[in-house]
Write a structure and sequence with these properties.
This protein has 224 residues and is α+β, with helices and mostly antiparallel strands. It has eight helices and seven strands, in the order H-H-E-H-E-H-E-E-E-E-E-H-H-H-H. Helix 1 runs antiparallel to helix 2, helix 5 runs parallel beside helix 7 and helix 6 crosses helix 8.
Length: 224
């Protein structure tokens, strides 16, 4: 049995679906990297990784960060090496559905995080973009309690150093025209701080990374 088959066999012993999906992402990422394609994990699995939550039905969503794949490459890796069921951009192996996307829709490419698995490095979609997306979804066009709760969890974890949140990048993104939720970010961060304080999680004990930058000041043009 080859190393890839051994790796697939090891996945069967992982009961936690989210962890199994991440380990599978590491294996797939390694195989694509050999072909010159660097993948990024997007979607719910990226959120669960930052929020430290588990999905009852985990799905692995992948997109190219560097390089491009071809249909032939997908077939050779997914069928020839991983014995996956499916075709083109939808597959399943190790009990995990896999979906390939053409465009990850990234704004903050430099803020992708590396996650080490037993089978290789995984790149995660930037948490700042995940947070901004959920803050927007929480309030526009109508309130969405689920999106608000998810955004709140990311802000709490960022405040308590579960990961290093780039608050400047998050603030700038939320103030962009496509989002326009800068005030909502400030309000939700304040609420997240209060919740973390109440839980005794030590908010703002980590230093400068926890400082929320002030919004940009726009100078008004002098009147004629």
């Amino acid at each position: 049995m080859g190393r890839i088959d051994d790796a697939l066999l090891s996945l069967e012993g992982i009961e936690d679906g989210t962890e199994r999906a991440l380990q599978l992402a590491g294996l797939i990422s390694t195989l694509f990297k050999i072909r010159g394609v660097v993948l990024i994990v997007t979607g719910q699995l990226a959120y669960d990784s930052y929020a430290n939550t588990a999905s009852s039905e985990p799905e692995l969503e992948l997109a190219p960060l560097v390089g491009k794949w071809t249909c032939r490459t997908l077939q050779e890796i997914m069928v020839g090496q991983l014995h996956a069921e499916g075709s083109l951009y939808r597959w399943k192996t190790g009990g995990i559905p896999i979906r390939f996307q053409h465009d990850p829709g990234l704004t903050l490419r430099d803020l992708c995080r590396d996650y080490t698995t037993d089978h290789g490095m995984v790149k995660l979609f930037p948490v700042e973009e995940l947070a901004a997306q959920r803050i927007l979804a929480a309030v526009h066009p109508v309130p969405n309690p689920t999106a608000r709760q998810e955004a709140q969890q990311l802000l709490i974890n960022g405040l308590t150093d579960a990961f290093k949140m780039d608050w400047t990048a998050l603030r700038n993104l939320c103030h962009q025209p496509d989002y326009r939720v800068g005030e909502e970010l400030a309000q939700m961060r304040s609420a997240a701080k209060q919740e973390a304080d109440a839980l005794g999680l030590g908010v703002d004990s980590i230093g400068q990374s926890q400082t929320m930058p002030m919004p940009p000041v726009t100078e008004e043009a002098p009147s004629a």
